[in-house]
Design a protein that fits this description.
Blueprint: E1 3-13, E2 16-24, H1 25-30, E3 32-33, E4 38-42, E5 47-51, H2 59-69, E6 80-84, E7 89-92, E8 96-100, E9 106-110, H3 112-116, E10 127-134, H4 138-150, H5 157-163, H6 172-185, E11 195-196, E12 210-211, H7 212-221, H8 229-238, H9 258-262, H10 266-283, H11 285-289, H12 298-318, H13 323-330, H14 342-345, H15 350-363
Parallel strand pairs: 3-9, 6-10, 11-12
Antiparallel strand pairs: 1-2, 1-8, 2-10, 4-5, 6-9, 7-8
Helix pairs in contact: 2-8, 5-7, 6-7, 6-10, 7-12, 10-13, 12-15
Organism: Priestia taiwanensis
Protein name: DGQHR domain-containing protein
Pfam families: DndB (PF14072)
Length: 366
C-alpha cells in the first residue's frame, strides 16, 4: 500500500489536537516503528541524554499477548497511542487522515507490547483503536508515555484474580483462586480471616495478613507455567478441556498439581494443602498465632510453599497426606518455634523467602 487512508475524528485537548481512528492490526504493525528508551553519551558535551521513549520489549509478555490475540474473546478496547511525523502526512481534515505508507509512518508512544503481539498474526479481521498525534517532539512523546504508565491507576492484582472465579473457562488461575477462597471462608481452615480476597481488609479478612494474589501465585506455579495462561485458555475455549492434557505447559517435576487440575479435583488439592497448613499451625503454634511473626505473612508463606514441594514428594511416596504424617515430617521445625520474625530472618522479598526456606529445610529430615 502506498497510502494509508483513515476515517478519523479530530479531537482537541490541552496538549493539542490529535486524531482517533481505527486501523487493521497487521497494517499498523507493518507501518510502525518504536523509539527504544536508551541512554547515550554525548562525547562532545560528556553528558548523558535519553534517546527514544519506549522500554525494551519483554519477550515473555509478547508471547503471552500472541496467545491472547488468538483467543475468540480477545479485545483491545484502549487506544494505541501513535505519533506521525509531518513528512508522512499527505492530507488531513476534520474527519480524515491520508498518510504516506512506509515502515516508519507511525511511531508508537504507548502500546508497543500489544502491537508486537501481532508480529506473527496472519488474519485480517482484527482492528485496533488508535490515537494519532502529528509532529510531536521526542520530549512531548516521552511526557505522554510517562503520564500513561506512571500516573494512571492500575487494577489491584487481587481483584484481577478474584474475577477469575467468574470465568466460564476452567483455567489454572480459576482453580487456584477457588482453592484460596476455600481457605479464606472455611471456619476450620488455619487461614480463615487471614486472606484479603480483594487485596484489602473486609468482613471475611478481619486479620488481613496476606493478599489473594500473593496466596494464589505459588499454587498456580505448582499447576503449570502461568506465562501460557492465554494459550491454555484459548485451547479450552476453541476445542475442549481434554485437549490440554498433553500440552507442554506444565513445569516438569515442579507442577505437582497438574494432574489434579486436569482431573478438576479441587477437593483433593484443597485437602492436601489444608492438612499441610494445619500441621504447620500445630508444629509452629506460637508463630502461627503471633501477628508479629513472618510465618503467615507473604515472606513466610512463600518459604512454606517452597518447602511444600519437598514435603509433598515425601508424603506422596508414602501415600499418606494426613495431618499426622505431615506432623511427623515437619516435627523438626519445632526447634524454630517462636523465633520466626523479621529480626531473625529478614523482613520481605524473594531472597528473604528463599533464605527462610533453606533454613526450614535444614530442620527437617526427608
Amino acid at each position: 500500500m502506498s497510502e494509508i487512508i483513515l476515517n478519523a475524528i479530530e479531537t482537541n485537548q490541552p496538549i493539542g489536537n490529535f486524531y482517533i481512528a481505527k486501523i487493521n492490526a497487521r497494517d499498523l504493525y507493518k507501518a510502525s516503528t518504536v523509539d527504544r528508551l536508551m541512554i547515550e553519551m554525548q562525547s562532545e558535551e560528556n553528558e548523558l541524554f535519553y534517546k527514544g521513549i519506549q522500554r525494551e520489549i519483554n519477550e515473555s509478555k509478547v508471547r503471552s499477548l500472541e496467545d491472547y490475540i488468538k483467543s475468540p474473546d480477545a479485545t483491545f478496547p484502549n487506544s494505541i497511542i501513535l505519533n506521525v511525523d509531518e513528512k508522512y502526512v499527505i492530507s488531513k481534515t476534520l474527519d480524515s487522515l491520508v498518510l504516506r505508507a512506509t515502515t516508519n509512518t507511525f511511531s508508537v508512544i504507548d502500546g508497543q507490547h500489544r502491537l508486537e503481539g501481532f508480529r506473527g498474526y496472519t488474519e485480517t479481521n482484527f482492528e485496533l483503536v488508535v490515537s494519532i498525534f502529528i509532529g510531536l517532539s521526542i520530549e512531548e512523546q516521552a511526557r505522554i508515555f510517562t503520564i500513561i504508565n506512571s500516573e494512571q491507576t492500575k487494577v489491584n492484582p487481587s481483584v484481577q484474580i478474584f474475577q477469575e472465579l467468574h470465568d466460564k473457562v476452567y483455567t489454572p488461575r480459576k482453580m487456584a483462586a477457588t482453592i484460596t477462597t476455600m481457605f479464606a471462608k472455611d471456619i476450620e481452615s488455619p487461614w480463615v480471616n487471614k486472606i484479603k480476597l480483594l487485596g484489602i481488609k473486609d468482613e471475611i479478612s478481619s486479620e488481613g495478613i496476606i493478599s489473594l494474589s500473593a496466596f494464589v501465585k505459588p499454587i498456580i506455579g505448582y499447576i503449570y507455567d502461568d506465562r501460557r495462561y492465554h494459550f491454555v485458555r484459548t485451547k479450552i475455549l476453541t476445542e475442549d478441556f481434554e485437549s490440554i492434557s498433553n500440552l507442554e505447559v506444565a513445569r516438569g517435576s515442579i507442577s505437582v498439581f497438574w494432574k489434579l487440575y486436569i482431573q478438576k479435583n479441587e477437593a483433593v488439592m484443597y485437602k492436601i494443602l489444608f492438612n499441610y497448613y494445619k500441621s504447620i499451625s500445630i508444629v509452629l503454634k506460637k508463630d502461627w498465632k503471633n501477628k508479629e511473626s513472618l510465618l503467615t505473612k507473604t515472606t513466610g508463606y512463600n518459604a512454606l510453599m517452597l518447602l511444600f514441594k519437598d514435603v509433598f514428594e515425601k508424603a506422596e511416596s508414602q501415600q499418606d497426606f494426613s495431618i499426622e504424617n505431615f506432623n511427623h515430617l515437619l516435627k523438626g521445625l519445632k526447634e524454630m518455634e517462636g523465633t520466626i520474625n523479621s529480626t531473625n530472618y529478614g523482613a520481605s522479598g524473594e531472597k528473604a523467602a528463599n533464605d527462610l526456606y533453606k533454613i526450614f529445610k535444614s530442620y527437617i529430615n526427608l
